[in-house]
Amino acid sequence: MYLYNLTLQKPNGIYQSISGSFTAPKTQEIVISKGTILELFQVDQSGKLKTLISKETFCQIRNISPFRLTGNKRDHIIVLSDSGRIVILEADITNQTFTKIHQETYGKTGCRRIVPGEYIAVDPRGRAIMIGAVEKQKFVYIINRDSESRMTISSPLEAHKSHTICYGLCGLDVGYENPMFASLEVDYGEEDDDKSSLYTGNYQKLLVYYEM
Fold first, then answer.
1. E-assigned strands of the chain?
2. Residues 6+ apart with CB under 8 A from 68
3. 133 falls in which pLDDT band (50, 70, 90)?
4. Which residue, among 121, 102, 111, has the nearest Cα to 180 in the 3D structure?
5. How far apart are CA 176 and CA 146, in angstroms?
6. What is the percentage of the chain residues whose pLDDT exceeds 90?
């Protein structure tokens, strides 16, 4: 027996939007996240938005980002949710759905502060992805192709930093040098250290660079 519930009225609040060419090269399309729903819109010749795909994901979407592998002419969609997985989707306009290309489990379910999924940063050259939690944990994934030109994702590389609150992540355009990511962080120190920010109240926000 299989049981599931579905609300009769879809949520209207838009939490996040991204742009790219998801169905064909050189198209102008927008993907929006409405909590549990992922929708794809296309801008027609008259400048109006046309709904191409609307899909219920049955999870709480935490973050989305466009991603294009080097040499590709279409963008993929990276979705982070409360399922504790990173999922790469491809827009299938023929069947009006999102096709799962790859998924990788990185943590427990739920929106936890030490489980990555709150932040995501993509290398502009399409070589790597960094995901981060509100506190401590960060993972880096290397994206590549196999012998049959299918997309592959590596095991996560850890970039954890204890006693640290993260405010944001972004990927830096460094050409074809080693991928780099930037992060805004605050180190609040250890509980047993009298000179830490927990006791002094002096919190200093730092710009931190991570090189793969």
1. 16-20, 29-34, 37-43, 49-56, 61-67, 76-81, 85-92, 97-105, 119-122, 128-132, 138-145, 151-153, 157-158, 164-172, 180-187, 205-211
2. 20, 74, 75, 76, 126
3. very high
4. 121
5. 20
6. 30
Cα-trace Rg, the chain: 19
Q: In sequence order, what DSSP letters do the residues of 70-125 get, joined into one string? A: TT-SS-EEEEEETTSEEEEEEEETTTTEEEEEEEEE-S-SS--TTSS-SEEEE-TT
Residue 106 near residue 156 (C-beta atoms within 8 A): yes
Pull the structure tokens for residue 175.
């050409």
- Residue recorded with tokens 């290398």: 123
Is the pLDDT reported for residue 56 higher than 90? Answer: no
Q: What is the DSSP letter of 135?
A: B
Q: Which tokens belong to 107?
A: 């943590």
Token output for 68: 């294009």
Q: Which two tokens stand for residue 10?
A: 């879809």
Compute how many other C-beta atoms are within 10 angstroms of the C-beta atom of residue 131.
29
Query: What value, to the nearest 5°, has the Cα angle with vertex 178 and ends 175 and 179?
Result: 75
What does the block give as tokens for 16? 């996040």
